[in-house]
Design goal:
Shape: flat
Strand order of the largest sheet: 1-4
Structural class: mainly alpha
Number of helices: 5
Number of strands: 4
Length: about 120
Amino acid sequence: DSFIRSRALGIDIKLETSGKGIRSYMHPLDFSKWILVIMGKNFIPLINFGSDNAIKIFDLATTIANIKFKNLPRVSVFKGNRIDNNYYVPNIELAREIGLKNSTSLIEQIYESLEYYSSINSKLL
């Protein structure tokens, strides 16, 4: 969220870490759908929520900084000093086995968020 806010305001993205940490991202609507599907089951499966699409924090920031969106200027990304080699990408095999999937890509999420932030008053940012 902070990366997208920075981009929407035309401010350089400053990481607190080296950007080597790896994460995955899940759209809130996909998360909600997964919850509803699970609630409709006769049992509660213990599954991991998320996406299996891994991305480095630095690569995510760079994508957000450079993605072409309306007339927003590109911004720069600066790495921080703190080392971050954390890896969090959930194993979602069980979720797939019961038919759950992510329907919104990370790129689509970025565009949706940029659209939102560019549509509201910059004073709210």
